[in-house]
Amino acid sequence: MIDEFDLTPNQLDALREIGNVGAGNSATALSQVINKKIDMNVPKVSLIPIDEVPDLVGGPDAIIVGVFLRVYGKAPGNILFLMPKKSAFYLVDDLMGRPHGTTQTLDEMDVSALKEVGNILTGSYLNAFFHFTNISMIPSIPSLAVDMAGAILNVVLAMLGQMGDHAVVIETKFLAEDDSVNGHFFLVPDPGSLGILVKAVGVE
Amino acid sequence: MADLIKVGMADYKVGRSPSTLISYGLGSCIGVSLYDPQRKIGGLLHIMLPDSTQARSSDNPAKFADTGIPLMINDVVALGASKARLVAKIAGGAQMFAFSNATDIMKVGNRNAESCKQILRRNGIRVIAEDTGGTYGRTVSIDLSNGSYKIKTIDRGEKSI
Question: How many domains does chain A have?
Answer without folding.
Answer: 1
